[in-house]
């Protein structure tokens, strides 16, 4: 059996695709795996994502390859996949989560509170920008695009005083950077930040049956719950919505935040759930946010 994997061409995307390829080869005998690197629409522009269609641009080319049967699966950072997935596609599995945290890189690795008044921080999305503005309205955030290496080069060249990136990306690439790790209370992650996912056509029963046992079934439940929270508020990858579901001895602890884009307003809640109840509990949790005006907040 041969499995073709669509992936973006960045160093991080190739790492993730190779990781999945190795997991497949470890689990399935006599399988051949081929990576098909592609350039996505999102990779071909430096414009802010909210101006060009959001993070879905990073997966559209890969999904087109699935539809045309050029590949069998696509590998994504799950946080880049829209919370409402087209029914034509299916997330087969996710793997053990890397750290969901965000890092604040700087030349000396100082803490967030030690940044000087009116300092500048590079960040790639409204969720991070809103949380920075909520805690430190004196700090100026600067939009930054490009792969991890490009962003770090801009930091080193003095475009800004600090740079926020996902800890998972730094860990996976094995980079050594002076940094401060935000606490979860300071910077709650995006839905499914740190999760690698595989996607296929919903109609491809053979590949689903072949691969659905690979990965981490409990992590998939947590990832789906986080994505359901975002979808319930009609949010997307670029909405100032943050959500984290963590497993502590089969008790699921959930933290959610919804902010205005300016970061001057916040709804913040916690709850406990279980693997048995999380699907319904996460909807009720989202409904509490909606009752307090979350949908209006993310449009401000």
TrEMBL record:
Gene Ontology MF, one: hydroxymethylbilane synthase activity
Protein family (similarity comment): Belongs to the HMBS family.
Protein name: Hydroxymethylbilane synthase
Domain Porphobilinogen deaminase C-terminal: 222-274
Catalytic activity: 4 porphobilinogen + H2O = hydroxymethylbilane + 4 NH4(+)
GO biological process terms, semicolon-separated: heme biosynthetic process
Cofactor requirement: dipyrromethane
Oligomeric form and interacting partners: Monomer.
Enzyme class: transferase
Stretches assigned to coiled coil: none
Pfam families membership: Porphobil_deam (PF01379), Porphobil_deamC (PF03900)
